[in-house]
Specification:
alpha+beta, Rossmann fold, 9 helices, elongated, 30% strand
Length: 319
Amino acid sequence: MARGVSLLGIIHNPASRKNNGRAPVDMGALGNRVMLRRPATHAALEAALAEFAERKVDVLVIDGGDGTIRDVLSAASLHFEHIPPLALLASGKTNVIAADVGTWGSGERALAALVAKLAASEGMAGPRRECRVAMRVAMGEARHLGFVLGVGAFRRAVELSKRGVGEGAGARLRTAAALGRSLLAAIAGPQRAEWRAGEPLSVSVGAAGVCEESRRFLFLATTLERFMLGVWPFWGEGEGALRYLDVEAPPQRLSRALVPVLRSRPTHWMEEAGYRSGRASTLRLRLGDPFILDGEAFRAGPDGMVSIEAGPTVEFLAP
């Protein structure tokens, strides 16, 4: 292939929403410099990425959703000295990462267009390149690379959306919709008292921060640069690639804070009322309930701690 791309490695998740029931990809139409693997287990994914690293693939194509991207990145970091550029086919239930960095679409036609673009002659425009810092999330012995982590009302809203929202706009916009749903449920929902009560969560910002025991209504962290629907609930100063939103429980004057939070337009009273946002290079959480990482629930380590820090910079190739 031209442009230095000599070998593509494709991870196809057959269980992703848009891939479920699709006919197998016609490998003959993609050329002989393409490797495609369909791992159905984490062990098979590890083996596929070890093979890709040994063969020195130039680009990793991920055909799946946010959870597939998280799993591929986490495994790739163990096998590649430097994670190669990624190209995304947005085939999952949630595609928040692809909405930020760009997607080639989904299905065999989108894959063929991707391969053709990367194999294009030097006279044609190459793919757009976007870089994002991945979050390195550690809980006990487990390690993951991801992009969106949420606790409290955000987790509850994501779990509700999985039960009540099918394929379509609600699925594609799940992070923005979950954030809005959590705020609205605490304002006017039938279980608003339960939502507003929050859950025990200690947050430490920065390497020298102290984890203070408290209750949080919602905590959200990301290294992405935009969500959908114009929602962007982050503001404030600080150094580091991690953006965070931290709302104490019960949330004060929530109906007045709704638009300022969702549109990143804080008013003068909000910090004192328990609405905090900023940037950091490290975050530490102590919690007993599950948290959401790129659309799926995880639990803290045996000590209840979750460590979040800036991980590797990942390059994405987009149309």
